[in-house]
Queue: 2 jobs
Job 1
Amino acid sequence: MEQRYDAVVAVIRDGLAVSEVAAKLRVSRQSLYRWMARYEVGGIEALAERSHRPKTVPHQIPAVLEARVLELRRQRPHWGPINLRHQLVREGVDRAPSHMAIYRALLRHGLIEAKAQRKRLPTYKRWERGRPMELWQMDVVGGVLLADGTECKVLTGIDDHSRYCVCAGLMVRATARPVCGFLIAALERHGVPEEILTDNAKVFTNRFALKPTEVLFDKICRENGIAHHLTAPASPTTTGKIERFHRTLRVEFLLERVFPSLAAAQVELDAWVQAYNTDRPHQALGMATPAERFGPRELLPQPALDRSALDHDRSGDDWVSRTVSVNGTVSVSNQVFSVGKHRGGATIDIRVTGELLEAWHGMELLRTVLRTSEGVVRKKRAETHHMD
């Protein structure tokens, strides 16, 4: 302000030319004329620096809409400008602000956190099945903490075409029986998909064992006509959709939360999954919800679900029990096969079908072999405690 006053005085009192004073101060003549006009109206105070903010900003969000955007952001802190604008449209806003206008509003109020941008691998190719129930992706994820210090696991499953969550079951340990129990529950609720894609966890496959055998998950898929596909080792992008779902689950549901009990955690998880399926728009689905893309759909008649693999009753005529010899073999109708020397002395259950022999130890399916003997099978019944 002092410099401006000296320039005005040099012209008015000392009679110097405007161009001369402007050149000396390295300002334009127009600026000096404006200072002189302001000085004549308001004196020296009028020469103070003024705000350069425009009186009106046509592209700025109206105050009512900005307040609504901020409220939505506080209710759903993980929603970005695209989801927020979509919600405004769903609420009936006629002239919804642009994504950038919403971004600027969030930035002004400190609701945007700077973070590193995720880089997409140049070799990554996005793929998607063409209709619902063609493929499910399933996996097990941890991170559910209980008040007593227990960390629980979740069996998750999503439909590849619609991103609809078909399964989210909590368990203390991800062993065969609870995992396959949740699988059966998902099949009963939603129907039987054509294919299921999983990674190579032992609860899903035994493909990398010294002697690969059929696990319980494989057996349920086979008996219900489901093609079970496995990812290549060390290739998590193959199941990218379920991994992305896990990221959403951790950030929006699990982050910094401790649940009083397993049952309470399951109730809250079910409520979150319901909101994810029916309320949360998905950018990869053109801002539709997973439920909108998953159904309604025409369900073709399907055979009754085969859940015999989880059947507790092993007292039927198709079940026998055998004690494993010291060299790890058992014999059924003079057909001898190995279940592992380390199981010598254990009592196992064997299911005898027309073509196969299934060896079980508790809920672990040890081996499935082709039945080569047609002789009479000695019916020594399996004991019920083997199921424990």
Job 2
Amino acid sequence: MRRTQANAQRTWAGSTGPARLLACVLLAGAVGACASGGPVSSPGTARSVASTCFDRETQPHTSVVDAHVHFRPFNGPAVPFAELVRYLEEAGVRFATVMGIGQVLPASSSCTYYLDCPGTPVVPSLRNDFVNAANVAAGPPGKVRLALSMTFPDFSRPGSVAAGIEVLDREFPGMFEWMGEVNLVKQAMYQNDVADVADSMPPLWAPFMATLRQRGIPLSIHADLGDNDEPLKHLPLVERVLDLYPENKIVWVHMGLSLQLTELDPARHVELLKRLLDQRPNLFLDISWRIVHDHYFAEAEKRAPYVALFNAYSDRILPGTDFLASRNKNFETYKEELAVTSSINQHLSDEAFRNIALGGNYARLLNLDYEAPEICPG
């Protein structure tokens, strides 16, 4: 910690822009507040340079990382970029992955959300990635360290993925650090002409997966496990991807859960996840989305196996809200979703809380020069 702070102090003194911002966050602590004049602390929410531990008794349990937040909706007006960044800042989030929406509704559609328009196709597009990248490039530094994500890929057309990466490299060189959320299986979109990726497709991903691997870019995949009638129907496809690309950092969003799978036995689910985590050291679990909380974490009996899993594999878990920034939402919506999706943090061990809620895992995944604060002795 002292070495990290010393490096950050030198960076703060001799840099500007994003580097100066990150140094500020490092000096202030994982939940620090960064003002224009430098690192500062505020009672109850911030860490100062002198105070290197996090007090779980007095400080918020909400995650300082949102590894899954959509800055763009499926269609229609979005919450303005700077306004959404303020939501993150005001909620105490210090690190966020800037996702768009890869599969979008037609611009001519009157719908904001795909579920409101059954029968209307949603089609992969670079549209939202361009908007997000332009906003990040133009926006002034703030308190949140943003990681741009490529959400355009169509896994059923592998050649288009490599071509899209080239386009983004040309227009926004070096800016994208993540890929996803990208759909492998998303049952909710069946009514919008979206089919599962065919089993024959994953072997053809090798060129763009090599690019991600060489750059150390994580890939967040939406892959529903199944439905209440056939809970593990799509597991073979998920395992095929994991087997083909064991060296890629793959983040399985929502742990494979969905609105179509709300009755899976938690003990059975956790045993499956343990097996996959043991066999595949580069697999991470995304525990975002309030649907996961409402159906699996809200009740103590169902929650218990997951808490045990997260404590045992605490270096492989990423938090997030899955907030979708359509203009009909506001700060109160975001704050509520962060509170709900962070509620499980209260039940985690100190080590797991530090890795998950305080950003240790996120920083390691992106190779950030950041160390989450230690937990204060009880």
